[in-house]
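pasting for ref
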Amino acid sequence: MGVMRILDSSGDTKVLWEVSDDEALARAASLFDELSSEGKLAFERKGSQTETSRIREFDPDAEEIIWVRPIQGG
């Protein structure tokens, strides 16, 4: 099972999908594209690792995708 966590002003929204569920997978991929087009950044975390890596395409096999807004320096 994969999970997307969308961190924004409304909190931590979770979206789940199973690779075997075509409908849930399509919704997750569509949401990924939507959030990307809004300029948000996606990071993938694998297993129990604490480090993440930036991704630019939806990976249906990802365990966890974390979305954040870009932060501008001052």
